[in-house]
Amino acid sequence: MDSNLYTTTATIQHSIPTASYFSISTGKKIRSVSRLDHSSPGELKFQKQVSSVFNSLSSENDVQLKPRPRPKPSCRPRLAPVLDYGSEEDAIKAAADVATSSSQLHHHHHHHHSSILCAQIEKLVLFGKYREALELFDFLRFRGNFSHVAFRSVIYDKLVSACVVLRSIHDVKSVFQHMVETGFEFDQYMWNRVLLMHVKCGMMVDADFLFDEMPRRNESSWNIMISGLVDSGRYAEAFHTFLLMWESEDSYEAGTRIFTHIICTTAALELLPSGRQLHSCVLKLGLSQHAHVSNALIDMYCKCGCIEEAWWVFAEMPEKTVVAWNTIIYGYALNGHSEEALEVYYEMRDSGTAKMDHFTYSIILRIFSRLASSESVRQTHASLIRNGFAADIVASTSLIDFYGKWGRMNYARNVFDGMPYKNIISWNALIGGYRNHGRGKEAIQAFEQMILERMVPNHVTFLSLLGACSGSAGLGSSGWEFFRAMSRQHNMKPRAMHYACMVEIMAGRDGLLDEAYYFIKNAPFKPTANMWGALLTACRFHGNVEVGKIAAEKLFEIAPWKIGDYIVLLNIYINSGRLDEANKVLEVMNRRGLKIPRPCSWIEIKREPHMFEFNDRSHPESDRVYGEIDRLMRLLGKFGYVNPLEKIKQKLKPLVPDNDSLGDEEKGGGSRRYHSEKLAVGLGLISTSKSGSLQVVQRHRMCTDCHKVIKLIALITGRVITLRDSSRFHHFQDGDCSCGDYW
DNA sequence: TTAGGGTTAG
Fold it and tell me: Where does the DYW domain start and stop, copy by copy (predicted)?
């Protein structure tokens, strides 16, 4: 192996694409792998069939793939040492010794000492002291006796682990160079490990080279390479490499693992045709009943929106594992079939074929959260404790998330405080809860506590934190501090969503629309829909037509199918009396075949859902519901409430269809208006105990009049009312809303 | 022996 590897390839490293859309256009062969003749003509034909699908993928037909988020950094729990390698203190001391003893180690007679230190590398890695291990390696390499002597295989193995955890390019080079220079004898395992550390550190050019040059490959080598290509966004090449393996002499190696991986890739990319093709591959190879492969197929079909086919694969499984159940349940939920998802979940419980695990809890809690099903969550919470998941990090975090979303922060806090171990996601759920609840100061306090406990924040933490600052008055400057601290103290590049939060802070609270506009323009990357969306919302709030128009146009370019943006722009025009321009927007929507969906709200009472539309009288309790609302509206008059409709209803009559599809107060339609959210709240008030809180869900953005009215209703009735609309949660309590009247 | 793979909480 050529030790000059790095000098030849260093210039083109890290070519990870950052374009918002990754277009597969490279049809060229990436690396040459000798092709073996295949004995069975049927097999060959089959392979050609597969190849043609992938080739069509990589031809220039402008296949546009949605970019997938980069894989999350794993949040590994802090493990207590279980192996008998001496105490952690010893290992730390050894690391400390490196510094102090380095001066004494210049001479040959310290060889024995060096060997001991060499063994310390192993311990340091086992105790998670990766940096120290690599420093020790450096020391031994340059100043100890190992400049020309190779380590034992197991030492390199541990050094590889350290490099992978630390993602350190420098150390990868150093370790590999040492192996090459000292003439280390690589076996298949170590070749794969070396490949892995290059891949994991994003050194894909070197990884390519290594992969081509390694004397032999096994399934693991192919798998590492393919996963590396996927991770660096080179999806076309990942498929291509899979094909090469398929056609190479290694093809007999293609087992369940590699198929699992490549199917998952198609799932992530939502490439249904390729997924189907792979499905037929595994059917042919007789691997389709393998549990992991089936799970991957179920997941793939779910992600591609083919829930029936997913169910078909699931039904064919001889033994349904808990992962399979979880995948199919989550798949139903993913495709918007929350109720069916729950039915499958009940089926799982009744079938007794698999015991539910913490993921099952997590998934169904998430479904209940969508359904605002607090009664079910109470039962699930109890069942979770009964079944010994009270201390489980995944299940508990899902509970915190639920309570944090629906405004039960004392519950969330109780769960959180009772957790024996917390990870960053648990903390984020807590901070996010305070954010949702409009409790910015407490969000910041929780963050500070987290830092004190030496938990390392990630980008989601800052998302919650910045959101908390934009959601509470007077925290704008804190928001700026956190935004700056991200890169200065926490070594993190703010992403588009963080910029969007800052836009909300600037434009939303402080009304600095122009500043926000230039902030977006000067962002170090192409502005995203989130950023323009934040600006557009701010323009609606402050009634700024000019900037709003610009933001809306950008949004229509990026995502012309998103109806919500058109509605906000319509509202901006209507509010400022520019009805001609509003009509133009409606025309554009018409031309593009976009229909404003009928707004509806719903509320769950005693585990039964109840849905309402505008002026809806289909509910059996309609008379009582309308009576209650009328009674409250009369009461509100005494609080100085004036129906804003009176002012503008005349001029709007010709414009707006006869439902309240604009979801805002500018809507005409007579003096008595019963928006769906008011009806849902009305039913909640008459059918629950006087102190009970209400949870309402709706897909459209709440109108300012309903917002005002529900705030007053919460004040008069003393209820806590939580409503999730298309943009956020609103917690009405004591005449106030957690959104601080900005949404 | 050791790696590499599947569902998943923000």
Answer: 674-743
Q: Is strand B less than 7 A from the beta carbon of A432?
A: yes
- Weakest-pLDDT range from A255-259, A494-498, A643-647: A643-647
pLDDT at A607: 83
Q: Which residue is nearest to nucleotide B1 (CA to C1')?
A: A154
Considering only residues 464-503 of chain A, list those whose CB is below 7 Å from strand B: 464
Does residue A177 approach strand B to less than 7 Å at its CB? no
C-alpha angle A121-A125-A128 in degrees, rounded to nearest 5: 140
Sign of CA dihedral A48, A50, A55, A56: positive
Is the CB of A327 within 7 Å of strand B? yes
CA dihedral for A279, A285, A286, A292, sign (positive or negative): negative
The SS3 assignment for A736 reads strand
**pLDDT tens-digit series, residues A441-500:** 999 999 999 999 988 898 999 999 999 998 777 888 899 999 999 989 888 889 999 999
- A486 touches A476 (CB < 8 A): no
Tokens for A592, please give them: 């593009």
Query: H/E/C letters for each residue in A647-714?
Result: HHHHHHCCCCCCCCCCCCCCCCCCCCCCCHHHHHHHHHHHHCCCCCCEEEEECCCCCHHHHHHHHHHH
Q: Are A395 and A389 a contacting pair, CB within 8 Å?
A: yes
Residue with token string 């008059």: A637
Strand B nucleotides where any atom sits below 7 Å of a protein CB:
1-10
